[in-house]
Amino acid sequence: MFDGYDSCSEDTSSSSSSDESEEEVPPLPSNLPIIKNNGQVYTYPDGKSGMATCEMCGMVGVRDAFYSKTKRFCSVSCSRSYSSNSKKASILARLQVTGKPPTKKAKVLQKQPLVAKLAAYAQYQATVQNQSKTKTASVPVEGFSWGNYINSNSFTAAPVNCFKHAPMGTCWGDISEGVRVEVPNTDCSLSAKVFWIAGILKLAGYNALLRYEGFEGDSSLDFWCNICGPDIHPVGWCATSAKPLVPPRSIQHKYTNWKAFLVKRLTGAKTLPPDFSQKVSESMQYPFKPSMRVEVVDKTHLCRTRVAIVDSVIGGRLRLVYEESEDKTDDFWCHMYSPLIHPIGWSRSIGHRFKRSDIIKKQDGQIDASSHLFAKVKEAESSGEWFKEGMKLEAIDPLNLSAICVATIRKVLADGYLMIGIDGSEAADGSDWFCYHATSPSIFPVGFCEINMIELTPPRGYAKLPFKWFDYLRETGSIAAPVKFFNKEVPNHGFHVAMKLEAVDLMEPRLVCVATVTRIIHRLLRIHFDGWEDEYDQWVDCESPDLYPVGWCQLTGYQLQPPASQSSRDSQSSSSKQKKKSKSQQYKGHKKKRKIPVGKKPVSLSSGLMTGGVWRSFSGDEELTPQYRTLPAQTSPEACQPPRTSREFNPCLKTGNWSCKKKQNLMI
């Protein structure tokens, strides 16, 4: 394993000229490396002692560092290439390195390393230029860097295993501080790409702060990188892949025997699983493909769904284009596990309103997405006593996600689905009713906000303030939905207040933004978008597929929206005054205009809406608006009082009933 532990230093000596050389060799650049091994520094002497020439590629180096007992080849790949090729192939390989045919005099030791090193130096310069171009192209938007942001403010990020729907979310395992990895050595002047071992000092989602072994208390070369990136490997990868391990140039002088140093440092240390990169690749395979057809909420009428076509998939997020959109600009963004999308035929199977498409025949290549691709809904125990039309509850308003409002069940659908309306703000035709499943974490029993000290938004125009549920139930002749009907499960989610993450702005769901958890109520998280006022905060479930670990955008290639600057907030102050929605007519789009635009703007909707299931083939239309019904008083408000304590609402708070499931079986 340690056969490849090499190090490098600067070549400050000038090579002697050879009388046997056929031509003059240009002087060697002073910063070219000389190889050393096992604590001994080798120059290129007049004799052949300590040096060897690869019989395959012609490279010259320290004999002890060469591959195999015979020391004929510089690496495993050269040894294998030589055994499978003729002597002619070896000569061709040398031509590629030196640019000239080998001669007898060219075999003189002093000449070969000079030519080879000059070629290597040219290759090194080209590599540096390419890397510089690559880095320039991958600079985050507006220069934002998670590493700098976390370092300068001592922030903490939510761990990857908090996000079961994200890549590696269910198999993050024991990746923690102290784990050792093999990474590219950027403090080296060798032409070839070389590696060195580094230890994880701090984790922030997928990102890790690394320090090269040997630097100990020196943080001068500490760097952040994405652990799931292609250049991060478990210890031992270099040995099995015939890649050189070279200590950074800054610390070459610290130890005379790097092999012994690494043996001591790595004994008992943890590293990544050998199949880590394979698991990363597998976790980033997404079953949804372009041209698949789904049913998705209609962003102009929340009470119904429409057919949409998958246009693109980025990190599991889908850009859906409504089927009747001729120029493909009428789109909608959501995660593939979002409760807002369903298989074709879902609406008809549960009695949900659906807008029939004018397009009768599928276009070439379009197929209906299979029902097993969608997130499975939890089974609701609807036998016996159950939710009824007219019952009151509290619900997150999908048009103003910072508010939990007084709400009413307007219709009970099949399979545990409910149509909910916000009291005092409903459209006359019911077009802003929205669908929640009975097990949705976005609906709550009467009294939930009071118990947990959350501001409850009363019905618009309600005069008796402060709002009291008892008085309101009596005045409206309504009953509260019993506490036992609601989902009381609280997973051991692992989130804590002040943790950083990347979160979808559900008011503009094409945007993924830098965000912070500011409050936790059971399984409910208050998400704050860094740089923006609190009025833009959103209530989100801890298992929402719209939350991601730090580094998710970099890993998947999705654009991250950085914290807003003061100037950008000031320029949009007039828009912020319109944050409250108007519900007297149909829903016509989000009211908030903020953050950096990234193309067309999908609508604002809560991640807690409609949870998808499985089901029959598509046909039919339910375009008619359901008749609004005013329900008579069924019982006195005393018959269903709100819970007195948080424990009464959530008896399993201390022992969360939750287990990690693979994302194919995620429950919403």
From TrEMBL:
Record-linked InterPro entries: Mbt, PcG_chromatin_remod_factors, Znf_FCS, Znf_FCS_sf
Query: Which GO biological-process labels does this protein carry?
Result: chromatin organization; negative regulation of DNA-templated transcription
Where found? Answer: Nucleus
Q: Does the keyword Iron-sulfur apply?
A: no
CDD domains recorded for this chain? MBT_MBTD1_rpt1 (cd20120), MBT_MBTD1_rpt2 (cd20123), MBT_MBTD1_rpt3 (cd20126), MBT_MBTD1_rpt4 (cd20129)
Q: Where is this region: Disordered?
A: 1-32, 561-604
Record SMART domains: MBT
One of its Pfam families is zf-FCS_1
- Alphabetically ordered keywords of this record: Chromatin regulator, Metal-binding, Nucleus, Repeat, Transcription, Transcription regulation, Zinc, Zinc-finger
One annotated GO molecular function is: chromatin binding
Record's compositionally biased regions (Low complexity): 1-18, 565-576
Q: What is this protein called?
A: MBT domain-containing protein 1 isoform X3
Q: Which organism was this protein described from?
A: Pantherophis guttatus
Question: What lineage is on file?
Answer: Eukaryota, Metazoa, Chordata, Craniata, Vertebrata
